[in-house]
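Write out the 3D structure for:
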Amino acid sequence: MKFLLLSHHIGRDIPENEKLENGMAMEEWFKLLQPIAALPINGGKTISSGTVGDYQGDIGGTLIFEAESMQEAVDKAKQSPGLKYGWTHDVLEEMKM
C-alpha cells in the first residue's frame, strides 16, 4: 500500500551544531522509507474559490512511500529524526481510485 507523509516543521529550526548529524539521520530515515516521491515545500500557493495567495502553512515537505499496513507506516514515521525538534507527521493511506 502507498502512504502520504505530510511533514510539519516550518518555524521549528534545527540548531546549527546539530544540522550535520540531523542530515545524516535524515538520509538513513529516507533509506528506511524508500520514498517513491518526495517534495520539499518551498513556497507555493493557496487557492480558494475567490483568492490565490502565498502558502503560509506549516507543511515543510511531503513524501510517498510504501508499507504493508498503516501500523508499519506509522512505525516508520515514528523513526523520523525531526520529531525530536518538534516536527510532526501526518500519515495518510492511499485512496484507491
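The CA atoms of residues 7 and 89 lie 5 Å apart.
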